[in-house]
Structures are given as C-alpha cells and as structure tokens.
Design brief:
It comes from Metabacillus sediminilitoris. It is a single chain. The protein has about 280 residues and is of the alpha/beta class. It has a single domain, classed as NADP-dependent oxidoreductase domain (TIM Barrel, Alpha-Beta Barrel). The chain contains 10 helices and 10 strands. Helix 2 packs across helix 3. The chain is globular.
Length: about 280
C-alpha cells in the first residue's frame, strides 16, 4: 500500500518517481501559478509536471526556487517533469527544446523528459535525442506521453533504451486496459493526466456511493483508485484546499469490490485528443 505523498515507484532504470504530483496544464504564468506550485511543495508534494506547450515553465522554475529558499526542501528532493512539443520533434530540435525548457525552469537537469505526442515520422528522431541526453547524464529518466501500444512497439523495436514512463489520459471512463497491461509487461510506468476527467466525474452516482462509504470526496476516491491500479497520478489544481484534499488519499484503501465497480465505469471515453486522430 502506498502510504504517503513522498512514496515512490522505481522506474526500470532505478530512478525513484513519486506516485503523486501536481500538474499545471493551462495554468498561466503569474502569481496563481507560482502560489499553486509553492503551496503543493509546502504541503508535501515533491513531483511537478509541466510542458513546453503550457508556456509556464518560467513560473514553475520561480516557484521551485522560492520553495527551496522558504521551505528548506532541496532540488534533489523534487521530481520535475517537462515535455517536448510536436513542433520541435527531430534530433537537433529536441535537444535544443530541452535546453530551452531547462533555461526557463532555471534548473541544471530534469528528472523526467517526455515526448508529448506520437507524431508519426517524427517521434523516433526525437527519441534518439532523448537517448543522447539521457546517456550524457542530462536527464534522470526519459519517457513518452499519449503513446498507444502500436506507437510503443514501433518505438521500442528501433531504440536502445525503453521509455521509463508513458503518461496518458486515464480515468474511470478511460481505463486503457490493453495499454496498461502492455506497459506493465514491458516495465514502463503508466502515468495519468486528467485523472478526474476535467471534473466530468464529480457527479457520478456510483462514485458518490463509494465516496460516502469511505467518507471521502469523489475526487479522492478516483485518485486512490489510480494509485491502487499502480498508476502515477498528477491532478491539477490552483486552490490550496483542493491541493490538500487531492493529497489526502493515503489513509484509506478501496476494497477489491469497489475497485471493480470503478473499473466497470469504463466507456473508452476521452476528454482530450485521440492520439491516433490528433490534428498536429
């Protein structure tokens, strides 16, 4: 059982990644962003997930710098993830994009760097760049985002290094059973973005029944379900009470029967783009 906010999963290269973190998708640069990240760190979060396309890496970097000064955490205690955007996929352009992200964040290295989307004809060259950056010791771990099984198979057959993480849309309406099994079989850690389905599950009757049983919120039940399924999760919030509530999922455990009830909500329904039909 995952017992606290600092508990980690060990990636296939031995790097430890927190099971739980905060995402900053669509949070604009400015005080709200800086405060959200600092608040999360203050309350024990150690994983922060951003991306070049979010256009907020500078604010995340500022928050990290201030949190280190104010709260006594060290850089080494934090796990920082960013992602290379589609327009920069290519060998030289991916390496340049990594350096840009690093400069904006004001960091010496990233803990995890991901290819954001599997753009056909481009992601293999980008992966080769990530392998170089990793081999040169500039990134602790490398991975992908939004890759389906066929993308992973195609990538792995021509790669020297397997992805350590695959971050995908994952929630009770989209359980991605085949993908989850493939990742487990290949030592790739699955991560969830949009774990709360952008709020669309917060009035679900089945989830409300389960939440009432455990005296928890629907959001807490979903996030606990993620963790018990062995999926790293990074809910987004900018409000302190939500940041605290989201992380209050380590004092209860869902029964097998309740896990199955939640699994049964799957409809293969996405709120984000389909990786196979995304207009890049």
């Amino acid at each position: 059982m995952i017992k606290n906010l600092q508990d980690t999963t060990t990636l296939h290269n031995g790097v430890k990644m927190p099971w739980f973190g905060i995402g900053v998708f669509k949070v604009e640069e400015g005080p709200e962003l800086v405060n959200a990240v600092k608040t999360a760190i203050k309350h024990g979060y150690r994983s922060i997930d951003t991306a070049a396309i979010y256009e907020n890496e500078e604010g995340v970097g500022q928050a990290i710098k201030e949190a280190i000064t104010e709260f006594g955490v060290t850089r080494e205690e934090l796990f920082i993830t960013s992602k290379v955007w589609n327009a920069d996929l290519g060998y030289e352009s991916t390496i340049a994009a990594y350096e840009t992200s690093l400069n904006k964040l004001g960091l010496d290295y990233l803990d995890l760097y991901l290819i954001h989307w599997p753009v056909e004809g481009k992601y293999k060259e980008a992966w080769r760049a990530l392998e170089t950056l990793y081999t040169d010791g500039k990134i602790k771990a490398i991975g992908v985002s939004n890759f389906q099984v066929h993308h992973l198979e195609n990538l792995i057959k021509d790669s020297k290094i397997k992805p350590m993480v695959n971050q995908v849309e994952y929630h009770p309406r989209l359980t991605q059973k085949e993908l989850k099994s493939f990742c487990q079989d290949n030592g790739i850690q699955l991560g969830a973005w949009s774990p709360l389905m952008q709020g669309q599950l917060l009035d679900n009757k089945v989830l409300q029944e389960i939440a009432d049983k455990y005296k928890k919120s629907i959001a807490q039940v979903i996030l606990r379900w993620d963790l018990q399924n062995g999926v790293v999760t990074i809910p987004k919030s900018t409000k302190e009470h939500r940041i605290v509530e989201n992380a209050s999922v380590f004092d209860f455990e869902l029964s097998e029967a309740d896990m199955e009830r939640i699994n049964g909500l799957n409809q293969d329904l996405r709120v984000g783009p389909d990786p196979d039909n995304f207009d890049f």
